[in-house]
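Follow-up to my post from last week.
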Amino acid sequence: MTKPILEVNNLKKYFEIKGGVFGKTVAEVKAVDDVSFTVNEGEILGIVGESGCGKSTTGKAILRLLEPTEGEVKFEDQDITKLGPEEMRKLRRHMQIIFQDPYASLNPRHTVEKIVGEPLLVHGMTSAKERKDRVQELLEVVGLRAFHASKYPHQFSGGQRQRIGIARALANNPKLIICDEPVSALDVSVQSQILNLMEDLRQEFNLTYVFIAHDLSVVKHISDRVGVMYLGKMVELADKDEIYENPKHPYTQALLSAVPVADPDAQIDRVILEGDVPSPSNPPSGCPFHTRCPKVMDICKEVKPVFQEDEEQHYVACHLYE
Amino acid sequence: MSDVILELNELHTHFFTDSGEVPAVDGVSFKLHKGEVVGVVGESGCGKSVTSLSVMQLVPNPPGRIVSGEVNFKGENIAVAREKRMKEIRGNEIAMIFQEPMTSLNPVYSIGNQLIEAVRMHKKVSKKEARNKAIEMLEIVGIPRPSEVVDEFPHQLSGGMRQRVMIAMAMSCDPEVLIADEPTTALDVTIQAQILDLMRNLNKEQDTAILLITHDLGVVAEMCDRVVVMYSGQVVEEGTVREILKDPKHPYTKGLIRSLPKLYEKEQKLYSIPGTVPKPSMDHVGCRFAPRCEFAWDRCVEENPDLYELGAERKARCFLYDEKEKVTEGGPQYDEADPRG
Ligand SMILES: Nc1ncnc2c1ncn2[C@@H]1O[C@H](COP(=O)(O)OP(=O)(O)OP(=O)(O)O)[C@@H](O)[C@H]1O
Ligand SMILES: Nc1ncnc2c1ncn2[C@@H]1O[C@H](COP(=O)(O)OP(=O)(O)OP(=O)(O)O)[C@@H](O)[C@H]1O
Ligand code: SF4
Ligand code: SF4
Ligand SMILES: [Mg+2]
Ligand SMILES: [Mg+2]
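User reply:
Got it. Predicted complex:
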């Protein structure tokens, strides 16, 4: 058993919505509401769920790009929510993030050399020559060429831009990378190039990824374990084969069955859910899924199910398993 | 096979931009039969949307325009129809839904107003009857609280609800053809399943032929009878959904299917097509796929291949299927020991 590199305990992130003339808090969006999980060294943990369920907020709160409202984030056994700004800055070289839209996250007025070299400078590589060499090395690692260094982001295709984003994240040899929908904006043929690149890099540099996506096939392909989120909560977490073959939570079951499969012979018992995801500023009482759950019971409307281990390493939050 | 209702014949739609002429639709031909669902698939920029906009004469002009070719709708070439005739066709005989329904719903009118207008354009009924009909339509497409939603405005609805309203509008005029351009791409999978279900009902119950534009081969497998694969402004393969997904012929289609992460199969490494998706260009010589194709040879970079007929409505645009080339039975074979596979 490898040791955990990241431990998230009871993480909460509430956004306050201000309104009125006095800017008082009129509502609260519970974007992440009591989420706990661990990520082992060298592992890829996938996080899936529908739009607005809190995946990105979880990722950003782990890195303290958003300050958690409550909870603990332990990176290599150290609770980083308690660290001061300077200590946090030092730690950031070990924890990186890549985003869905590489275009929005790359400064359009900077050359690739500057973009990829910037984190090197921030972390003390002051020699321009050294930085230049390192940038060339990084570009090669992600499958770009040395001459790309002098070009600007708009001169690249979406897949190439994602490679630049990855090169930048790798600059300071991080241990953990939070990948927030890194392939969602890419075409299928390019998506598989980037997925393969990310797998190769993990092997080569012993990286750990938290891989956030809404595409269940992509997450299944790349992850070792998968967590499913719904309305700010983690509702199920297990080994990837286990969760895809033996989903326990009614939401996971519905989500998986809703994925169209590119095989005319696939036999799928489709569970078509009714209605939309409720608003996270006014989540349902009890189980957050009870308004759409085909197996809802009386208890579900009142009592919140606890996220607990049902079988070895298979966690689920549902009264059916209590 | 039943009657052809819509037929594209060597359609060319080009954009005339500052940086040159872009042949976004470069000689596209295919047929849609009555009551059939045909998928148009391909990666971003290959010309799917411009093809469908051309059918409706909705290509923004300038910079774009249909340069040549025909769009035959029940025998009438509507590529050259007057705007007056197109107004009758749009939303009546041919309905269209888009990826982002917000762009096609008018933000300043209530949902009810827009539905009532659609109903009254089609049938001579009183306002009151039309309103009741509108509420009924909302109910059919699964909108909760239909009698309240009818008075709400587009921005008050979620993306899935807006798409359902668009489908309600399309259904209310009982069109013969529905063109759906990425109708579920912006939606979550559970909502996508609801919308696909509605479209399937529309096809089955009203016998509406559907031209479904998507980049998702999963959606294709679920919805379509036949498939047209596009690459860089051209049709590169055509066949039944089974033929395309189970026995693809064109190297691009083969590569695309092998690049997909599979939900129900164990796999090791994903196949990937090298290179990037090209933009349509007037300067193309040779096969558009040649720079990425592992089977390419001299001829592929010199000549643009025809869309070779392999059977009834089974076609592939690749020299491997040219009789003259005498290739092994069944087309190109990937070496299973290929490190990328
Ligand atoms: N800065 C903010 N202020 C207020 N609410 C926010 C803020 N950021 C996110 N939210 C809300 O928090 C919830 C979770 O958002 P988040 O972006 O984490 O979802 P997500 O799972 O990443 O969704 P997507 O798949 O669309 O990226 C949403 O309801 C969102 O509207
Ligand atoms: N208004 C425009 N001006 C200039 N070129 C255009 C315009 N609209 C489209 N094009 C060109 O036409 C080509 C085809 O575009 P189209 O929108 O049909 O692609 P698509 O297959 O629908 O892609 P996507 O999957 O991204 O929706 C593109 O490569 C684009 O460069
Ligand atoms: S707790 Fe109840 S409502 Fe929630 S998922 Fe389980 S059965 Fe459904
Ligand atoms: S014509 Fe040549 S380059 Fe084009 S797909 Fe066929 S083999 Fe490949
Ligand atoms: Mg997100
Ligand atoms: Mg399009």
